Every structure is written in structure tokens, then in C-alpha cells.
Amino acid sequence: MANLIFSFNTVAPVFLLVAIGWLARKTSLVNEPFVDAASKLNFRTGLPALLFLNIYQAKAADFFDWKFVGLMASGCLFFALILCLTVPRIVKDKSKASAIIHTVFKPNVIVLGFPLMIMAFGEEHSAAISMLMPVLIPVNNIVAVLILCAMDPENDDAKTHPLKKAFASVMKNPIILAAIAAILLQQLGVPLPGFLTKLLASLSNMATPFALITLGAQMTMSSVLSDRKYVVSATILKVLVTPLFIVPLAWFFGFRGYELATAFLVSASPSAVNCYMLAREMRSDEVLTGEIILSSTFCSMFVIFIGIFVLKTLAIVS
Asked: What percent of the chain has pLDDT over 70?
């Protein structure tokens, strides 16, 4: 019951922040130009700061199991490849197809997966997910940018080669640059000045709430009704199919205990909140992206609760 309560307490603020954004837009407290400017500001400051600090300040694990890290990263990327090969054949609209692919393969490890792992099993058993974060988060963000660039409708312009445009976007993307900088500084042991750490902490604290409020300001009932089939399909893929693919794969390669629990929590986590910011910035369908984030967040609460119950019942974790 404690895990269910924790999951609810984690998810409820998400919906309330989105509701604030939706009400602000409905009451004309904010308008479209403001939302555009706020989204761009957060994309270039808050979210990069959040990612940078989560990677830079990640606790060193007692051991670094490259086999486990490699399995999780390659499993997520292989699933993304399957989606890239299948979804565009079914969903002809490139912006909607990229939104589905992006949200299905990219988990919300920072906001939900990591704290839930600590809540459920304690900090002493968080080594597996701690060593995943500095690798999985930047890899997923880089792949997400590549996918969104490759499926950008403007790439139909023959003057711009999709791969060149994707590479240029990756090199200029503030989230990617923040991840690379954090990894380099962490590995080189470079300390950050106190004032810079406080600045980044202040920016990172506003990132998720700001992203959710601007997400809510973009929500419309007509889009919810028209995109219902895509939202349902993407949610099922995210919170059910993904863990059914990743967890048996981890079991097959011999991982048990808290590593298997980590594989489950990462794969069953809902779509990452910054999917919305990337979609909005890179001409994917940001409204559909936001709907999938909300739906997968709500549904994952129940899936994760059931999964933790099964793991403990089968004595896979203590």
C-alpha cells in the first residue's frame, strides 16, 4: 500500500500542474506567444540544468557493471529501432509518428523511476539505477533528437539532407550539450564553483513544473478526442509492451534481484516529461506528445505497483 500511495503522490502533482496550465490558457491568463517563449526558455535553461545536475551529481556505484548498462541501453535502442521501422508504416503523419516513437521508448527515469526505486527498495539497493542514469539518459536524448530530426516534415526539402540536419541539431541541442558536459566534468573530477551549482539547482528546480504548466496550456479537448487511438496505443506500448520486452531480456541474460527490479522500473516508467519540450522545439506533434505523457504517467502508477508486488511475492527482491 505504501508503494501505491507513493506512486499516487508522485503522479498527482503532475496532473495538477498541467491543470494549472490548462486553466491559465482557458481563462486567458496566458496566450500562445507567452507559451512559445516560456517553452523555449525552459528548453534552453531549465531542462539542460536538470539533466546536467542529475548526471554530474550521480553517486558512484560500488561497481560499474558494463554488461547491465550495455544490455539496458541496447535493449531500449533496439526497441526504438523496431518502432522506427513499424510506426511510420501505420501512422502516415510524420509529426504524429515521431511523437509516438519518441514517447514510447524514452522513460521518465529522473522524475519517477529513480525516486521510486529508492522508495521501494532503499538507497542501499539503488546502485544499478544510479550507474544507468549517466549512460541511459544522454543516449536516449541523443537518439530522440536524431529520430525527431529524421522525421521532421521539413526534411522533405531536397536541399537539406536529413542526416546532416540531424547531426547539426544534435551539436546545437542544449540538452545534448549539457549531458556531454556533465559526463566529461564528472569523469575528469572537475569541481563546480558553489555559485554555479546554486544557479544550476535553481534552474533545474523550475524545469519540470514549468514544462508541465506549458504542457497544460497546449491541451485542447478537440485534440484529445481526435488523437484518442494514438494515445491509447502509445500508452499500451509504453507501460505494458516495453517492460514485457525488456524484463524477459534481462532475465535471459542472467540478471536477478535489484538489477531485474531496475530493468522493470526503467522500462515501465512513463514517458519522460522533456519529450514535450523536444517535440515542441523540433516540429513533432507536441499536443499528442503531451497527451501520451499524461496517459502513460497515470497508467504506469498501476503497472509499477503490480510489478513491485509481483517482484516481492516471487522473492526476486526482499
From this structure: 80
- Distance, CA of 242 to CA of 230 (rounded, Å): 16
Question: Cα separation of 236 and 241, whole Å?
Answer: 6
Q: What is the pLDDT of residues 217-247, one digit of tens each?
A: 866 555 555 678 899 999 999 999 999 999 9
Architecture of domain 2-313: Up-down Bundle (1.20)
Residue 164, phi then psi, degrees to nearest 5: -65, -40
* DSSP per-residue string spanning 179-207: HHHHHHHHHHTPPPPHHHHHHHHHHHHHH
According to the model, what pLDDT value does residue 227 have? Answer: 75
Structural contact between residues 104 and 242, judged by C-beta atoms closer than 8 angstroms? yes
Average of per-residue pLDDT values in the chain? 80
Q: Which residue has the cell 525527431?
A: 148
Q: Which residue has the cell 491559465?
A: 24
Helix (H) or strand (E) run with residue 220 in it: none
Quote the pLDDT of residue 64: 59
